[in-house]
């Protein structure tokens, strides 16, 4: 439960230099400490827009570099954990504020430095309960950016505020086979805020490069997200765009193979978590509607932390026996 992201799946690749190690930042978005996977992830983002790949890698470099300057634990830096949230934050700025604007690049650069500080604060806070920071620093800062941006013309010169009040769903709820296929891959690509299905396919290829188990778990999480959204009567277009199922992919990965060992029992537990995250996503989006309704990875963070805390009561999932727990408390 206290293991850092990527320890189970991310193999320690003997990189040629620090440049390769920077690629572990984007890879750690899906809990992998594999530079090759990070390279595939950046290339996948670049297929949608070459600047997205640059923002993701540049964000990881700034976050990792800031962590090095501040003498953050070498183990966290080497595994790419200090580049994960900064990579996502830089990409978020590019997607929502325009990748080609100088102000976006400057804001992303400053945000990545702040992300290192936010990560340190979250790590220290959650360490009290033996919990991982996940993408909580990214969620906090991405929310601040999207809420504050309309107030500054040099950051967001066009358009009004982002408010979008929640409304009742409408439209058909049964996606056609083509939409289901696109949703399967978009659930993965939307982790990185992109809705191109081929980006999701390439991201899955990157997962497969590091671990077949990780790729299969991600696929199971995506399928669970689709089935849950359909069973609950979500609009077909919301299922197809991947915004309802992206958090399910991350929850499945986190609960089966990263923070809990990959076993049949934890797989079922992880898929239950994936279904929960899918159901939680509209609730989070509605709560954040006054600021634009961007759920980011909040459903993943909330669901995973809750399920990890609960797992401590289930020896079948953690592998700990009551006798061992009693001995630990006595010590």
Concise synopsis of the structure shown:
The chain is an all-alpha fold. It is built from 17 helices and no strands.
Give a structural overview.
It contains 17 helices and no strands. It has 331 residues and is mostly helical. The chain is globular.
Query: In total, how many beta strands?
Result: 0
Tell me, rounded to a whole number, the average pLDDT: 87
Low-confidence stretches: 1-8, 10-16, 321-331
Run of helices and strands: HHHHHHHHHHHHHHHHH
Instruction: Please give the share of residues in helix.
Output: 55-70%
Broad shape = globular
Helix tally? Answer: 17
Radius of gyration (Å): 19 Å
Task: Tell me the layout of helices and strands.
Layout lengths: L17 H5 L1 H4 L7 H14 L1 H20 L4 H5 L2 H17 L4 H26 L8 H13 L28 H13 L7 H14 L1 H20 L4 H5 L5 H13 L5 H24 L10 H14 L3 H4 L3 H9 L1
What key attributes describe this structure?
331 residues; disordered N terminus; mainly alpha; disordered C terminus; 66% helix; 17 helices
């Amino acid at each position: 439960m206290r293991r850092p992201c990527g320890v189970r799946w991310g193999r320690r690749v003997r990189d040629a230099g620090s440049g390769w190690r920077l690629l572990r930042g984007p890879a750690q978005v899906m809990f992998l400490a594999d530079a090759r996977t990070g390279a595939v992830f950046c290339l996948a983002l670049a297929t949608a827009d070459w600047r997205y790949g640059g923002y993701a890698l540049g964000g990881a470099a700034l976050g990792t570099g800031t962590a090095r300057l501040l003498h953050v634990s070498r183990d966290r830096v080497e595994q790419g954990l200090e580049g994960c949230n900064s990579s996502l934050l830089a990409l978020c700025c590019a997607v929502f504020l325009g990748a080609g604007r100088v102000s976006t690049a400057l804001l992303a650069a400053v945000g990545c430095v702040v992300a290192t500080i936010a990560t340190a604060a979250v790590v220290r806070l959650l360490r009290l309960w033996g919990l991982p920071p996940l993408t909580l620093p990214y969620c906090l800062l991405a929310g601040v950016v999207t809420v504050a941006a309309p107030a500054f013309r040099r950051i967001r010169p066009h358009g009004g505020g982002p408010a979008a009040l929640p409304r009742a769903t409408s439209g058909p709820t049964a996606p056609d086979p083509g939409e289901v296929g696109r949703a399967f891959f978009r659930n993965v690509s939307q982790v990185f805020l992109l809705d191109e299905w081929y980006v999701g396919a390439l991201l899955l290829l990157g997962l497969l490069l590091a671990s077949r188990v990780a790729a299969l778990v991600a696929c199971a999480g995506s399928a669970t997200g689709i089935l849950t959204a359909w069973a609950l009567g979500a609009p077909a277009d919301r299922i197809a765009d991947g915004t309802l199922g992206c958090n399910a992919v991350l929850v499945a990965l986190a609960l089966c193979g990263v923070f809990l060992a990959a076993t049949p029992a934890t797989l079922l537990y992880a898929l239950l978590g994936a279904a929960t995250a899918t159901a939680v996503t509209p609730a989070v989006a509605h709560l954040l509607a006054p600021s634009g309704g961007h759920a980011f990875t909040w459903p993943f963070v909330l669901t995973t932390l809750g399920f990890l805390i609960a797992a401590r009561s289930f020896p079948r999932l953690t592998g700990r026996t009551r006798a061992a727990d009693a001995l630990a408390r006595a010590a």
